[in-house]
Design a protein that fits this description.
This protein has 506 residues and is an alpha/beta fold. Helices cover 49% and strands 6% of the residues. It has helices spanning 49-60, 80-100, 112-123, 136-148, 166-169, 177-191, 214-224, 238-246, 252-263, 277-281, 287-296, 302-325, 337-345, 367-370, 377-389, 394-407, 411-425, 432-443, 464-470, 473-494, 497-500; strands at 18-22, 35-38, 65-71, 105-109, 127-131, 154-158. The N and C termini lie far apart (85 Å). Bound molecules: flavin-adenine dinucleotide and ligand FO1. Ligand FO1 binds at residues 40-41, 69-72, 75, 78, 82-83, 86, 133, 135, 281-283, 430-431.
């Protein structure tokens, strides 16, 4: 009798992590077909519960397994910055998955509701495994795919993104970090466990994967999305992510942990933050891995580790809870009643500045905000940091969004503008953390009411003077100016010579 694997060495995925979206009706005479993992949010080989589940199910049925990725023509305003980062990460994954796991990787382009069912049909798959995202677009695609695949296909959704699966942590919309914290913490002993080592599946896929011309694809995508250029400082891929977490040269847990407790709210010290959000957003690193490794070094810096876990596990998983249970997660209608009321009570308060006017045709004029041309040099610096550095400091994101509330004609307009800019320029944008970040700042989601004041009503207020008391505002403005100047200079140097010649060629 094989002894029970110790809890940290479970070879299969905990059942709480899996939701059966569709039970296939397989006629007994037909043997099981292959397993396909449609990789979407968790774009990694290491520590990926969805991949582990797909391999485990394939081995149990003695069938092969493949990984499929669908590249959408357009995804929530993503440009070269995000797509280049994502595709370079996938290019590495493609090389590694076929060499180390002998699992074929298929990349499709277009709409997943077309490409994924077609692939399942072609390979006669019996099980589709998908990772979890609470975003409405994704949920819509999954519902449609459930309708399109044949009866015999089962579909399992695996929450490979959260330490505690979102539907296990809570079965309802949580009010704040205070209400979800103990629910998550009480479940960590069960879910914050180490990962089983992933071995190549028993059965090999009949043919090699399909897709090879990464260079051309990446060049095309980067050219088309050139309006928001790639970032040089942020290296894509799983290896780079692990390096940021715990690399020997400048890893967060190995070299920078101490400053997390002292300087994480100082925008002049961005390296005091972990720098993990781009990798967490694209799933190139597992939050569970980050939490396991952070817990392992807790003795060295308990406050820093506790503060990091509060953000990484409680705050981040609270954001998924909000987007999962609140369909209007990016709208004023998704705010609590008290917040909607207070914002409406003050909707007609005089604003010192208005930077977005709804033109007769309803198009929001965002230029002054987008081009950082407001009367507030601190806000302009934060906008320039987002545009040119591609990752605004966490503290400044609160100030940045709250000023947009102050300077726009309505909270809906403020939400629309902040989400538009956040998703266009942030390398970690298009993420539940971003929607919740904007909703927290503008309509008090997960926050309490504060002393009532013009425009903000009871929404927490932040201003220039408050920032001045907390950090060296002029230093931050100068820092961003330097960084933005550096980025522009490097871009000019990298531009093809033709672009550099000012006077028309003779
Ligand atoms: P660290 O402090 O090292 O945090 C580690 C991880 O914890 C982060 O990567 C993130 O996954 C999580 N985390 C940290 N702070 C928060 C938070 N407030 N809410 C939820 N999770 C958190 N985060 C994004 O990932 N994408 C966004 O688009 C985004 N937009 C935001 C917009 C606004 C207006 C606000 C107020 C916050 C936003 N955040 C967003 C949350 C937070 O600012 C970033 O997660 C953080 O700055 C990322 O940098 P880091 O990983 O170095 O931070
Ligand atoms: N995932 C995909 O499966 N295909 C895509 O084409 C794709 C594009 C994309 C662009 C920007 C971005 O921030 C994420 C993108 N993702 C894509 C990943 C996935 O959609 C994200 O992890 C979710 O947005 C987070 O829930």
């Amino acid at each position: 009798m094989a002894e029970n694997p110790s809890p940290t060495q479970s070879t299969t995925v905990q059942s709480g992590r899996i939701r059966v979206l569709k039970e296939g009706s397989r006629p007994s005479d037909r043997e099981m077909g292959p397993v396909v993992y449609w990789m979407f949010r968790d774009q990694r080989l290491r520590d990926n519960w969805a991949l582990i589940h797909a391999v485990d199910q394939a081995n149990k049925a003695n069938v092969p397994v493949a990984v499929a990725f669908n590249l959408f023509d357009q995804f929530l305003g993503a440009k070269a910055r995000q797509l280049g980062f994502m595709l370079k990460g996938l290019q590495q994954l493609h090389r590694d998955i076929e060499v180390t796991l002998r699992i074929p990787f298929f990349l499709f382009q277009g709409e997943a509701i077309e490409t994924i069912p077609t692939f399942l049909e072609e390979c006669g798959a019996s099980l589709l495994v998908i990772d979890f995202s609470p975003l409405r677009e994704v949920r819509g695609w999954k519902e449609e795919i459930c309708k399109r695949v044949s009866d015999s296909v089962s579909i399992h959704e695996v929450d490979a993104h959260n330490v505690v699966p979102v539907w296990v942590a809570s079965d309802k919309l949580e009010y704040s970090a205070r209400t979800i914290r103990s629910k998550i913490n009480n479940l960590l002993p069960k879910y914050l466990i180490d990962f089983p080592r992933l071995r190549p599946p028993i059965k090999k896929w009949a043919s090699p994967g399909q897709f090879a011309d990464w260079e051309k694809l990446i060049a095309d995508v980067v050219r088309k999305g050139a309006e928001v250029p790639e970032l040089e400082w942020c290296k894509p891929g799983e290896d780079a992510a692990m390096d940021v977490l715990m690399g020997s040269k400048n890893g967060f847990l190995t070299k920078r942990l101490n400053s997390y407790s002292t300087d994480r709210n100082n925008p002049l010290k961005p390296s005091a933050l972990s720098g993990l959000s781009p990798y967490l957003h694209f799933g190139q690193i597992s939050a569970q891995r980050c939490a396991i490794e952070a817990r392992n070094v807790r003795k060295l810096c308990p406050q820093a580790v506790d503060a990091f876990l509060e953000e990484l596990v409680v705050r981040r998983e609270l954001a998924d809870n909000f987007c999962f249970y609140q369909p209007k997660y990016d709208s004023l209608l998704g705010a609590w009643e008290w917040a909607r009321k207070t914002l409406m009570d003050h909707a007609s308060d005089r604003r010192e500045h208005i930077y977005t006017l709804l033109r007769p045709n309803g198009i929001c004029r965002r230029e002054q905000l987008e081009k950082a041309q407001t009367a507030d040099p601190l806000w302009n610096a934060s906008q320039l940091e987002m545009v040119h550095v591609g990752k605004m400091h966490g503290f400044m994101r609160m100030y940045w969004a709250k000023k947009i509330l102050e300077w726009t004609s309505s909270p809906e307009d403020a939400l629309a503008v902040s989400i538009y800019l956040n998703d266009k320029y942030e390398i970690d944008g298009r993420d539940p953390n971003g929607y919740v970040g904007c909703m927290w700042s503008i309509c008090g989601v997960h926050d309490q009411g504060w002393k009532e004041r013009p425009v903000f009503g009871k929404i927490r207020y932040m201003n220039y003077a408050g920032c001045k008391r907390k950090f060296d505002v002029d230093g931050y403005i100068a820092y961003v100016k330097r960084e933005a100047g550096e980025v522009k200079k490097r871009k000019l140097e990298a531009a093809p010579t033709a672009a550099k010649i000012k006077e028309p060629r003779i």
